[in-house]
User: Fold this.
Amino acid sequence: MSELKKIKDEFLLKLKEKLSLLEINQIKTDLFGKNGLISSQFKKIGTLDETERKKFASDLNVIKDELQNLINLKISEIEKAKINQKLEQEKIDITLPERPFVRGKIHPVSQTIDQISSIFSEIGFSVEEGPDVENEHNNFTALNTPDNHPARDMHDTFYLDQNKETLLRTHTSPVQIRTMSKDKPPFKIIAPGRTYRSDSDQTHSPMFHQVEGLHIDKDINMGHLKGCLSYFIKEFFEVKKIKMRFRPSHFPFTEPSAEVDIGYEIKDGKIIIGEGNRWLEILGCGMVHPNVLKNVKVDPTKFQGYAFGIGIDRLAMLKYGINDLRAFFDCDYRWLNHFGFDPLDVPTNYRGLSR
Amino acid sequence: MTNLKEGDLLNQLTNIGLEVESVESLNSSNEFFKVAKIIKTEKHPNADRLKVCDVNIGEKNFKKVVCGASNAREGLITIYAPPGAIIPKNKTKLVVAKIRGVTSYGMLCSESELNLSDESDGIIELPLKFKKNIGKSYFSKSKSKLIDLSITPNRPDCLGVRGIARDLAASGFGKLLDLKEKKIYTKTKKTLKVKISKEKNQGCGVFGSCLITNVKNTESPQWLKNKLISVGQKPITAIVDVTNYVMIDINRPLHAYDADKIDKHITVRNSKSGEQFTALDNKNYKLENDMCVISDNKGVLGLGGIIGGIRSGTELDTKNILLESAYFYPRSIRNTSKKLNIDTDAKFRFERGIDPLSIENGLNQAASLIKEICGGEVSKIDIQKIENFKSKTINFDPNLFEKVSGFKISIGEMIKILGDLGFKIKKEKKNLKLNIPSWRPDISQQIDIIEELVRISGYDKIKTVYPQKERIKSTLNSSQKMFHFLQRSIASKGYLEAITWSFTDSNFNNYFKGTNKEIKIVNPISSELGVLRNSIFSNLIIYMGKNLDRGFKDLSIFEIGPVFTGSAPGEQNTVVCGLSAGKKSRLSWIEKERNVDVFDIKRDVVQTLVEAGYDHHKFFIDNETPNYYHPGKSGRLFLNRDKDRVAAYFGEIHPNILKKIDIKLESLVGFEILVDNLQLPNKNLSDQKKKFIVSDFQKSERDFAFIVNKNVNAQDLIEVVSEVDKNLISDIRVFDVYEGDNIPENQKSIAISVTIQSLEKTLNDNDLEKINNLIIKTVEDKTGAKIRS
Assistant:
């Protein structure tokens, strides 16, 4: 008995000291090794009287557990200290820059086109396209703009041949002709795309973007036109209320025709859309002229509807406060970075146009 | 006649389709200009051509004004503009300024500076009688404002004040006054005979004229001058001013000839090629065949409805005039003016269509005014015509109005509006039989009537019908979806999207046009934008250069858009084209910097196509690329081994091109994805996600190093290995390529790691050994490779 206590006291004392891992392992061997002090005591159990044996064994187990726990604790303490010491040395300057990640940007015109498509998608329009090079017929004549019509002067046209038969389309309206020529009514389409006029200054560039709209069915009247465009403008500018006016105008391919202005004011040099008492023209529209319908073999006594043309670049300028149209096509890295959109920022119906 | 407010007027004009462009106050600026007298002039101490004048402007002290006019002299009565005045010609505001060291308080004006005439030589010399007006405003006071309207091409009638008034009155704004009929008393029967020759393409339908004899041409009276100045016209002489006045009043262009300068036999005929004349703009015009001219025995007097000739022009000493009031066909006017590139006020009006029934009224109005101002006797009116103009009629179904406009007005309202606009109306059963006013060439069918009714009723009456949210057809078709997907996929790989012109510089285009032919624009905006682009590279490289000049070195840009293969509609393809330049990890503390290379761009192309839904394992790549790529460092990618259509090209841009266009770059790689060549993933939903099959049996990786001839490429080796056993070989990776020491010349070592895994069982050593040996044997047999031991 006293022998056990002796061992216990001696080693408890030893283990209180500051020990290295090596020293602890030595103690472990001294106690629990093959011929260790504790191991030897266990061997003794068999030699004892039955009366003593039970108590001795029980005492021995208690001492064994106590010492063993203490040793494990000591070891884990040392290991922990060691890891901590290692981690201490591994500390880095976390403020250093991360590895570079480059993501590109989507051009504001492309983003705007996607927004427009998304809005019109929800009210049932599908997207049509047409070629950039057009013939004179689709661009003018079929659109009720015959050769001697002064309205042709309003379009400074790029021609590809001396006879002025092929040209770069001056508007997206020829897509109306292409769409209606190849299919049967009803039609409900938009057609965004590049358009060209030989004009260049701060508000005109030789290439720009338009989106055409066309809705032809049995009973589509000017009320539908007004409703469609009011809806579009509110959705596009992401406002609940917007000041806008329809006023009479003239286009050869629509009658009656209208231009749509939206109200704005200038605050601190920035355009604020929707309020104020200045007017800004943003689109032209009207009821498709019966002559145009006849030209594509649609019976104007049975079908009627509206068409509109919107300047996409202009809309983007207004929405994002861009002053110079020419910058759109100037490819300045800084400008593209500043006004571009993250490619993951896809305008959708369910998520909304902007994030 | 109206007493309503200005703001209401402006709104009403816009509301009925006569858009107000601007409003300018006339009196505020004009009051500045004062009659003044030069008291003394001295030579400017520092400038030979300048004078320093003391000017009496009706105040106690004389003003010191520096003046450069040679006619500035003591005693001259002229017009003085003080600091603060806005000079009409250039719209600049005068300030007190030091001119070569001498302070000038205001300025003395020339006629051109005040927009009174084109005379810019010297300052205005007023007659002595103005002495009593010194210090007073030169221009009479007026509270008028100048309203500038944008008149659409369909409304020639509103190019005259009366047309605008008629529209306003019809919309309930004021009342249109009746014109006083001015019948001129004719004593003299003397006229000049005019003939319209009957020939094909005759450009003149009616020619009305009268002779006014014994006139005394003069400056116009102040009221007439003021009227013309107020609408931006320069007064010239009474005769010309009267014709302009009538034109602006009722949109009836007139022309006055000096009758004494006409050499008999006035004929309206087609010109013959080679005929010439000098027009009133002092330019000599060479005519082609079939232009409508007024001529006499000596030749061309003028181009009908466009411009008169100098030879027969009126002057201050003109005694007898022939006054012309004609109808010229818009098509003829337009053809001639386009060919000769002339734009005049008369041309603008005739081109849009003048009221053919206003000929007599125009002559009467003008002749009586000329008689009033210049005296003389007016002859009988002579009218020659080859066409009788009758007013057209339309049968209008009133029900159509609501069908198109979506709102209702009563038949009574319709009759009121149309009546006010000058229509003569007869009710016939349910329809209205309408006589179209002769001044409305734009009206010929029922829809034109609906337009009039909606316009005058007001667009605010149109009810808003909000759209229904239903979709019958999908918004985008599969190729449009592909377009959008590729656009965003490339952008997500570090490329900024650019949009550049569809045209480009022919010099740059030549480098990149490949086998395409050049497509010239007949009338380009500049020679640098003279051709349609055959490739997007030309524009991207031009803008790459501009960004380099801005100090950027590491640039990646792309564009998705059309390239052109021919000049017919539809001869165009959609291409995604990108360029990447400079270095990766420039100035990085953590990564080693290196040049952008062909395998960077290959990754971008391949990964984009994979994201778009194509199977990487089926891609086939060779090195047949267009001549603008580096011949050794570029590739052509097919979606599969059938090689039917090229999906993409990628590679380094040919160094010779970079040298020629003198662009300095550390590296430049580019790609083109030919969107139209991609077979659209025409699959249904169940195809998009294949059945999910994986193996949970143990897999093993075996490495092989083969020594092969240099012309054996990695793609071939992988192909051969994968064919060995498609069921067991699940992956092959190239992990080393080596040439040099220990490898024979013309050979290289390619090391691959092959993953072997069965779907059915765990492979034992025996199985693995078998497939191992088979791989080695097959590769050696098929490629002539040797396994490296």
Q: What stands out?
A: Chain B touches chain A through 97 residues (CB under 8 Å). The mean pLDDT of chain B is 91. The longest strand of chain B covers residues 34-43.
